[in-house]
Amino acid sequence: xxxxxxxxxxxxxxxxxxxxALLASLSVLVRRVRQVPVEGxxxxxxxxxxxxLARSGPTISSALAREAQITAQSMGxxxxxxxxxxxxxxxxxxxxxxxxxxxxxxxxxxxxxxxRNARGELIARALTSGEFTPxxxxxxxxxxxLLERLAQNI
Length: 154
Known about the structure:
Blueprint: H1 15-35, H2 44-56, H3 61-68, H4 72-84, E1 88-92, E2 100-104, H5 106-127, H6 134-152
Antiparallel strand pairs: 1-2
Helix pairs in contact: 2-4, 2-5, 3-4
């Protein structure tokens, strides 16, 4: 990483260079973790819809589609597949009987936990593959809370 220093930064590091390096490396990590299939797992659209529904709470399909910036038909198809597998349930909207409210079932919450656990195990296997020294593992452990704090400040 170039060290064109910022006169106001006593470390001599350039914040723009650090930002670019972090963004590039984290993007590669996230992309790789998402690409590795998890046996019996959810497809990317299914995981996205299920996670979004878990975060937002019970809501209508069209609201989820707007939030995900996809068509209502695509969201409806994804939710239909999730519903057929028992991961979401559909109930009449108490405010408007013409609409249905979707919510995540216990099985849906478990599927999300399983996916997160599988991703964590994937990263743990990579960390223990012998490619990382104990000192590097300590550096990565020290970086995790800093990355979280960075995310909270964006």
